[in-house]
Amino acid sequence: MTKQVKQLDRVIIRFAGDSGDGMQLTGDRFTQESAVFGNDLVTLPNFPAEIRAPQGTLPGVSSFQVHFADHDILTAGDAPDVLVAMNPAALRANLGDLPKGATIIVDTHDFTARNLTKAGYQANPLEDDSLSEFALHKVDLTGMTVEAVKEFGLSRKDAARAKNMFALGLLSWMYGRPTDPTVSFLEKRFAKVPDIRDANITAFKSGWNFGETTETFVVRYEVKPAPMAPGTYRNITGNLALAYGLVASGVQSGLPVFLGSYPITPASDILHELSKHKAFGVTTFQAEDEIAGIGAAIGAAFAGHLGVTTTSGPGIALKSEAIGLAVMTELPLLVIDVQRGGPSTGLPTKTEQADLLQAMFGRNGEAPVPIVAPQSPGDCFGAALEAARIAITYRTPVMLLSDGYLANGSEPWRIPGVDELPTIDPDFAEPLPEGEEFLPYQREEATLARPWAIPGTPGLEHRIGGLEKGDGHGNISYDPANHDFMVRTRQAKVDRIAEALPPLEVDDPSGQAKVLVLGWGSTYGPIGAGVRRVRKAGYHVAQTHLRHLNPFPRDLGDILSRYDKVLVPEMNLGQLSLLLRAKYLVDVVGYNEVRGLPLKAAVLADVIGGLVAEAEGIEVDLTPATKEEIA
Amino acid sequence: MTADLGLPGLHSGVELVPTTDAPQTGKDYTSDQEVRWCPGCGDYAVLKAVQGFLPELGLRRENIVFVSGIGCSSRFPYYLDTYGMHSIHGRAPSIATGIATAREDLSVWVVTGDGDALSIGGNHLIHALRRNVNMTILLFNNRIYGLTKGQYSPTSEAGKVTKSTPMGSVDHPFNPVSLALGAEGSFVARTIDSDRKHLTSVLSAAAAHRGTSFVEIYQNCPIFNDGAFDALKGADTKADAIIPLVHGEQIRFGAPLEDGRGSKVLVRDAGTGGVKVVAASGVDEADILVHDAHSPDPSTAFALSRLTDAGYLNTSPIGIFRQVERPTYDDAARAQITTAQGEGADPQARLASLIGGGDTWTVV
């Protein structure tokens, strides 16, 4: 039959199922297909901390949201247009996020009395009119999958497992996605198990064919490729970009990378990725604990490698004393914190930005540490290089604050040419002329950096450690004046980093804004999308985003003073707000959520609108923009 | 799934460390820092022994690194004119692991104490031993906390009255040698601060061993635990207190018989499966235990370690309990990198193909 084709400028799809249903893989494949097709996109995986929570229950629901468009987008979208629900729990857990009129595709196979009870349904929602406000498609995905792969002789259980590929095939048909990348992906992934490989490919193709032939679906949608700056692109997650950024830091500094790490969600993928890149001279040391991870990285840094440790918030807490040692010994070190919900074990698989103050102050004594934060998944690459530049140039540990949303979320990334990347000079100390005394704490004037004298260099034998150092000679010193001087010097060294930072870019197209929205880290996307909505409705608002949180850019104080109102949205209870208020005496307004999820653009637009109304003494009505649903 | 690691056949602990022909003396290894241990501290003797022994290795001084944790003995690196790091409490083995893995051309030493290594740093110690990272760990055991002024340590005997245990400690102590053997140690030895000759011979064997060499050094703290090792040092008592372990020799000690040999011997104990002390007289020569430090099975070494008194030290075996070859972590880690690197491609070209891999698309 001939199907109607409808043009859309953007779509948000959420795949949801049991944590064993392969929803992350399904979402990831749909994303790759969309990326290759040329859409702009942003993704939001959301999964439980339990590897296999009890089957069919609400806590066991795993989902993957992908937002793709024919234009530049900034977030994974606030509310899905399409929900694919593989069981009753997946339907129930996600229904509240759907706007009226959204499309729901359910696998009817799993809507048994038992599964309905597990999900807390008294009655089958597919049989009453509780879903009447939605475009509901009841499809026996499992049954059709089992039928389609019969010829491969798999057990019923194994056959049914290919249902996610059937669903992917159906959605791929519906949105005109290219199928070749997924077929070749499956060929590679299951190369060693031909029957599983063939079953998955067959299920995928059957899903596509089902869409093509069935009368259940009468409309196909088309979302054209988005115009993008010339270049070669790939889709990339934050953790992958961060790992590549670390490899690149090694190449661009000529230093072998040494990662000391202990597995922790959501940072482990960086360890996994780096362990594949031994060809770059990367050593990955899976330590006995978080402390040993950073300890080995400090040892490697002393020995002349680019020392790196990766973790999440609880790991930072354990590493604090060792970070202080790196501050005292003034060794280059990268400390990567992929933040998750806290405190304590908190929400391991959910995102949060609540480690800023830990990064800033979470050590004994005056122990300043520079902080860098990426703003999007692809930006993790450049942020890693920037952190390495600061660490090596200034001989200091640097904290890089990613988060769970950046780590697992993805976006198209323009692959930079290697010649565009900065080079970093380790500038190791060289042997001195005969008779000259080596002073391990004698500083460079411009950077206040001390020499990096690595073992094996004759004549530069010296001892460093956690005890206070005498200025210049670096021997133990308990002298009061020396301690005061050294504390101030370590602070001055970190402050000096600001002198080499570029001016902050403020996006204020009309130049008439009275309200500035200031963010850091992964809130960049939602803030940008919220700002767009407000502007689209005809109002003025300025936006700027901090990559450097310690030290702040030199012009930040001036910029803050130019606006009547400064809004600081954060996924914490106001940590950047606290720092800005303390440093600049500016009465910033916080917008704070700690729900383990990214901020929503529509919510931020309302908050910004409210502030604009207050600052300009006008009525603000955002309705026209909301209708167009720009993201 | 396991992979064949195809490990390099390295044997000496200093095989890849550059050497020098220039004569060295203890003075070359003495830094300009004033040594600040208490008068009479056993640490002085060990420092002297190490400064006297290092020149014998003939290594380039700049290729030697001493790492310590926190405690009295951890001041050690400041007094040696090599590269050194006085790090944080208990973490020296992890820092040394990073150094040793990063650089095959360094001779890496860890100086630690009973509190540093066995209490706060216990985890790092056992994992360094398990991995067999090429380093030598000198554990100064004075059975007390000195730097914090006299609390009991994880090797203090039960019942010990200290500042923090006025009614006597209720902690059961570790036997460091048993612990190291249980942690898969490939070189485990014990020596005494006051016996410079024995100390030097053990250090020499430890440095020559490829892998983690663990050396427990009984060290007297004259301030907070004076006399803890007196039985092993007293002219009248030491013959009965020290059970000397020498590879390939019968294990004998005690007041000498007419033939000059010890009056007590070790024999296997059929009842426990361990070893026991018996009078030499009346024992068949063939039944006397001959020390085999190279045995692949650590059971006998462990049984020997149990002859150490857990309370006040009246008897203790001294010497090398175990010395076996086993692949080291750092050699294996470097071998994987060498294999992966293969023929040296330009790193930037490699980087370009890495980040440009995967599914890509081009916008013109």
From TrEMBL, chain A:
<dbReference type="InterPro" id="IPR002869">
    <property type="entry name" value="Pyrv_flavodox_OxRed_cen"/>
</dbReference>
<dbReference type="GO" id="GO:0016903">
    <property type="term" value="F:oxidoreductase activity, acting on the aldehyde or oxo group of donors"/>
</dbReference>
<dbReference type="InterPro" id="IPR029061">
    <property type="entry name" value="THDP-binding"/>
</dbReference>
<keyword id="KW-0560">Oxidoreductase</keyword>
<dbReference type="Pfam" id="PF01855">
    <property type="entry name" value="POR_N"/>
</dbReference>
<feature type="domain" description="Pyruvate/ketoisovalerate oxidoreductase catalytic">
    <location>
        <begin position="20"/>
        <end position="207"/>
    </location>
</feature>
<protein>
    <submittedName>
        <fullName>2-oxoglutarate ferredoxin oxidoreductase subunit alpha</fullName>
    </submittedName>
</protein>
<feature type="domain" description="Pyruvate flavodoxin/ferredoxin oxidoreductase pyrimidine binding">
    <location>
        <begin position="256"/>
        <end position="468"/>
    </location>
</feature>
<dbReference type="InterPro" id="IPR019752">
    <property type="entry name" value="Pyrv/ketoisovalerate_OxRed_cat"/>
</dbReference>
<dbReference type="GO" id="GO:0000287">
    <property type="term" value="F:magnesium ion binding"/>
</dbReference>
<dbReference type="Pfam" id="PF01558">
    <property type="entry name" value="POR"/>
</dbReference>
<dbReference type="InterPro" id="IPR009014">
    <property type="entry name" value="Transketo_C/PFOR_II"/>
</dbReference>
<dbReference type="GO" id="GO:0006979">
    <property type="term" value="P:response to oxidative stress"/>
</dbReference>
<dbReference type="InterPro" id="IPR050722">
    <property type="entry name" value="Pyruvate:ferred/Flavod_OxRd"/>
</dbReference>
<dbReference type="InterPro" id="IPR002880">
    <property type="entry name" value="Pyrv_Fd/Flavodoxin_OxRdtase_N"/>
</dbReference>
<dbReference type="InterPro" id="IPR022367">
    <property type="entry name" value="2-oxoacid/accept_OxRdtase_asu"/>
</dbReference>
TrEMBL record, chain B:
<protein>
    <submittedName>
        <fullName>2-oxoacid:ferredoxin oxidoreductase subunit beta</fullName>
    </submittedName>
</protein>
<dbReference type="InterPro" id="IPR011766">
    <property type="entry name" value="TPP_enzyme_TPP-bd"/>
</dbReference>
<dbReference type="GO" id="GO:0016625">
    <property type="term" value="F:oxidoreductase activity, acting on the aldehyde or oxo group of donors, iron-sulfur protein as acceptor"/>
</dbReference>
<dbReference type="InterPro" id="IPR051457">
    <property type="entry name" value="2-oxoacid:Fd_oxidoreductase"/>
</dbReference>
<dbReference type="GO" id="GO:0000287">
    <property type="term" value="F:magnesium ion binding"/>
</dbReference>
<dbReference type="GO" id="GO:0045333">
    <property type="term" value="P:cellular respiration"/>
</dbReference>
<keyword id="KW-0560">Oxidoreductase</keyword>
<dbReference type="InterPro" id="IPR029061">
    <property type="entry name" value="THDP-binding"/>
</dbReference>
<feature type="region of interest" description="Disordered">
    <location>
        <begin position="12"/>
        <end position="32"/>
    </location>
</feature>
<dbReference type="Pfam" id="PF02775">
    <property type="entry name" value="TPP_enzyme_C"/>
</dbReference>
<dbReference type="GO" id="GO:0030976">
    <property type="term" value="F:thiamine pyrophosphate binding"/>
</dbReference>
<feature type="domain" description="Thiamine pyrophosphate enzyme TPP-binding">
    <location>
        <begin position="70"/>
        <end position="217"/>
    </location>
</feature>
